[in-house]
Amino acid sequence: ELGNLNDAPFSGDEENGGSEEQKTEINGNWIPATSITEAKINAKAKRRLRKNSSRDSGRGDSVSENGETLKVGVVVPTSPKGKLLDRRSRSGKGRGLPKKGGAGGKGVWGTPGQVYDVEEVDVKDPNYDDDQENCVYETVVLPLDERAFEKTLTPIIQEYFEHGDTNEVSEMLKNLNLGEMKYSVPVLAVSLALEGKASHREMTSKLISDLCGTVVSKTDVEKSFDRLLKELPELVLDSPKAPQV
């Protein structure tokens, strides 16, 4: 048996018949040559794959597990991010068109050009009231207080000194809710005229005459001049000739 052993890579059987595959000893273990060949091929393929991936890394490309080149920034359809950007129906139905033709959703009034009919009142409604159909809604104007009165009427009278139209002043005063401040209209007009020219005083006399009976009454005019006489000491400070005027 010892005489049959030799240093050749083939055993006696392989020399005789050649039916067994070639073997190589590595680290004391006998490994078939076909396995070594396959390992070399796989190692060479991996080296080529790593070389290609390192070459394409500068161009923003990456290699998938299957060896396919993928562009960086391109979202894979199967990734979660790709599903978020997908506007198709999650149920797999539909063509991705807007619901209800664009008339659905929050804050939407309807499709363009849609005309709504007049809604009829239901008589059988528990909240129905017979008097609600006969209601007349009017704009309520709050009465002016003392501060708002002077702030509102001063520009009106000053503009009157420019155009001299008493009818325009009358119409503007009728749109205001003067309330108990009606008698203050002549007081304010005379006070502003004392600080102005002689022509302004003549225009103020005409204005009070035209407003009497339409905007203010005779009682309001009497009350206004009584107040002017009481405030005369204060008016003298601004207009020294106020008593004679």
Question: Can you tell me about this structure?
Answer:
The chain is mainly α and 245 residues long. It has a domain at 146-238: Serine Threonine Protein Phosphatase 5, Tetratricopeptide repeat (Alpha Horseshoe). It is 44% helix and 6% strand. The chain has helices at 12-16, 33-56, 80-85, 146-163, 166-174, 184-194, 198-211, 218-230, 232-238; strands at residues 23-26, 29-32, 61-63, 69-71. A two-stranded antiparallel sheet has the order 1-2. A two-stranded antiparallel sheet has the order 3-4. Helix 4 (146-163) crosses helix 6, helix 5 (166-174) packs across helix 7 and helix 6 crosses helix 8. The longest helix has 24 residues, at 33-56. One of its GO terms (molecular function) is RNA binding. It is found in: Cytoplasm; Nucleus.
Fold blueprint:
Elements: H1 12-16, E1 23-26, E2 29-32, H2 33-56, E3 61-63, E4 69-71, H3 80-85, H4 146-163, H5 166-174, H6 184-194, H7 198-211, H8 218-230, H9 232-238
Antiparallel strand pairs: 1-2, 3-4
Total strands: the figure is: 4
Question: How are the strands ordered across the major sheet?
Answer: 1-2
**CATH topology category name of the domain at 146-238:** Serine Threonine Protein Phosphatase 5, Tetratricopeptide repeat
Q: Flag low-confidence runs.
A: 1-21
Net shape: elongated
For the record, give the distance between the C-alpha atoms at the N and C termini, rounded to a whole number.
157 Å
Number of helices: 9
What is the arithmetic mean of pLDDT? Answer: 75
Q: In CATH terms, what is the architecture of the domain at 146-238?
A: Alpha Horseshoe
Strand content: 5-15%
**What is the C-level CATH assignment of the domain at 146-238?**
Mainly Alpha
Order of helices and strands: HEEHEEHHHHHHH
**Roughly what percent helix?**
40-55%
Task: Determine the structural class based on helices, strands and strand pairing.
Answer: mainly alpha
What would you report as the Rg, rounded to the nearest angstrom? 53 Å
